[in-house]
Amino acid sequence: MSSTRRRFLQTLAAGSALAAGASQAAKSTRTPFDFSADIVVVGLGAAGAATAITAADNKAQVIVLERQPMATLRSNTRLSGGYIHCPDKRGSKKALLSYFTALFSGAYDSLPSVGEEEAVSKKMAQHWTDITPHLVDWLKSLDPDLKMLKTGGGAQYVNFPGAKECSYAVYRSSYQDVINNKTTTYNLPKSKATEGEALHQALIHGIQVRKDRITVMDKTRAVELITDENKRVVGIAAKNGGKTIRIAAKKGVALCCGGYEYSAPMRKAFFGGLPVAGWAFYGTIFNEGDGIRMGLDAGASLTKAGSCAARMIWAPPVEFNGMRIGVTTNGIGSPHSIVVNSLGERFANESLITGGITNNCFYEKACEQSLKTLTFDNLPSWLVMDETMFNSRQLANVTRSTVGYGFVDFKNNADALKKGWILKGSTIEELASKIAATGGSSARMKPETLKRTIDAFNADCRAGRDTLFGRSKSTLQPVEKAPFFAIPLFAGGSNTKGGLATTADREVLDWSGKAIPGLYAVGEIACGLNRGGAMLTDALVFGIVCGKKMTQA
Ligand SMILES: Cc1cc2nc3c(=O)[nH]c(=O)nc-3n(C[C@H](O)[C@H](O)[C@H](O)COP(=O)(O)OP(=O)(O)OC[C@H]3O[C@@H](n4cnc5c(N)ncnc54)[C@H](O)[C@@H]3O)c2cc1C
């Protein structure tokens, strides 16, 4: 080996936060690879970690490529709330299977067509029935110090068959007995880590203890799948420190590199509404749709590509690549506040935006086009509140998400007001004029319209009934104590979840429905969920399924 090449490989190894166990591929003109493994996993969130760990436990040598440095890795998994669905393992498996069959088949939806083909949904439901009751045990097996805290949460869709009998349960990831953070969870020492931070640390611990079988190459961005003459995926090319490296994958490549929240072209291709200006996300900025692009280049097909776990969120004027970064927004639907469209009119029961099941699909309402004017009147919308509401809570979550993990510098409401991120008016009319001055769709907001909307809402509050949208009585407190405040709301949330079409075992399909040999996808890039927000559970369940499947290839 030349000394330059040796130096390059040494640099690469030094760049990895975790020890290298991968073998350098034998030099051959037929296989000009720099490294070789049984399985290459792209991305180190929940999906990538579960796939790599399971493959390693089934005796495979695994290389994980992660574009971020390990020391500051901020995946969506790490920024998350760390909620994991894990029904009681002593509960009825029959009921659980019925529940998950309903979830994946769509048979109990008002629009059954959103479900999977019967054979696929059956297998997906079986995987969830087999694996979810053991997820807490599986996570604790990665790090026995991890405590998983049972929440009061049950099955999300209470009318699905089996929902009541399946002993459904939801847990929160934590190394502490109680979750009560006031400041960021980012980099908390293990004994204090909670939520996504705890989940991330447990998964990374699971990877570290398998370092003889798993090599993590961080600061290494996968760019292109390598296929042979039969279109089988046999490896992957990646960029590391400006150099391109090629890695052979004997049993295949698993794309686990998240969705396309920060790809403007993909947003334009897949989103409704105003795909770039009208949307924002509050997860990592490092998911740019690379996996979907690489999959498409290798002949993969797409499914439900525009699907998201999203509603409406606040996005201050902080951008990445021309796209606003959102924050986890507190207080929508609370007393002393309403949401109006860019004309100053209410358009929905505000509680639906963040409440329960609609929390993960309200973006559909946000993106509605007016058939009268052909405008997107709800983009942006405005959360309008009085002083009582403004003083009652921070408008953004400061413990995790984009604020807690340093993507958005929100300190508190007062600081955001000073920065001009929150608008203030001593009267409703003044506030409306300031909103109109922001331009775009909101330039159409007339002070008298907003005043009329708020007067009508306040009258409904006094009468104890929301005559327009039936908002719950407990939230009907008037917007009346000056000064008044407003923040813009965009379609958005945590992540996209549509993408590459796969089998129930996560083999990626081409447009004729055939599996592309050697190519797999797990997590946001190919989410199995038609609805609901159990994204972490989806990433873990299918990571476990896929890691095993790949070792059998
Ligand atoms: C604030 C927030 C709260 C949430 N709360 C919950 C919750 O409580 N429960 C729940 O079920 N879901 C929750 N979610 C959603 C859930 O966190 C994600 O859907 C899930 O973590 C996705 O896992 P993943 O492995 O697919 O993606 P990620 O965890 O985002 O991992 C993808 C990784 O791929 C890397 N990557 C991207 N491109 C490349 C490339 N070309 N080469 C190499 N690496 C690459 C990225 O850097 C990233 O580290 C939340 C999300 C957010 C943002």
Task: Set down the secondary structure blueprint.
Layout: H1 3-15, E1 35-42, H2 46-57, E2 62-65, H3 76-79, E3 83-85, H4 93-105, H5 118-131, H6 135-142, E4 147-150, E5 170-174, H7 195-208, E6 214-217, E7 220-227, E8 233-240, E9 243-255, H8 264-270, E10 279-281, H9 290-297, E11 302-303, E12 308-314, E13 319-320, E14 323-324, E15 337-340, H10 351-354, H11 363-366, E16 381-386, H12 387-392, H13 401-404, H14 413-418, E17 423-425, H15 428-437, H16 447-463, E18 484-496, E19 499-500, E20 507-509, E21 515-521, H17 535-551
Parallel strand pairs: 1-2, 1-9, 2-6, 9-21, 10-18
Antiparallel strand pairs: 3-5, 4-5, 7-8, 8-9, 11-19, 12-18, 13-14, 15-16, 16-18, 17-18, 20-21
Helix pairs in contact: 2-7, 2-17, 4-5, 6-7, 15-16
The structure holds flavin-adenine dinucleotide.
Rg, nearest Å: 24 Å
Rounded average pLDDT: 93
CATH topology of the domain at 309-494: Flavocytochrome C3, Chain A, domain 1
Distance between the termini: 32 Å
What is the global morphology? globular
User: What are the low-pLDDT stretches, counting only 5+ consecutive residues below 50?
Assistant: 1-29
How would you describe the overall organization of this protein?
It is built from 17 helices and 21 strands. It has helices spanning 3-15, 46-57, 76-79, 93-105, 118-131, 135-142, 195-208, 264-270, 290-297, 351-354, 363-366, 387-392, 401-404, 413-418, 428-437, 447-463, 535-551, and strands at residues 35-42, 62-65, 83-85, 147-150, 170-174, 214-217, 220-227, 233-240, 243-255, 279-281, 302-303, 308-314, 319-320, 323-324, 337-340, 381-386, 423-425, 484-496, 499-500, 507-509, 515-521. The strands form five sheets. Strands 1, 2, 6, 7, 8, 9, 20 and 21 form an eight-stranded mixed β-sheet that branches. Helix 2 runs parallel beside helix 7 (195-208) and helix 4 packs across helix 5. Residues 1-29 have low confidence and may be disordered. The structure holds flavin-adenine dinucleotide. Flavin-adenine dinucleotide is lined by residues 42-48, 65-68, 73, 75-77, 79-83, 221-222, 256-258, 282-284, 286-287, 290, 328, 400-401, 494-495, 523-524, 533-537, 539.
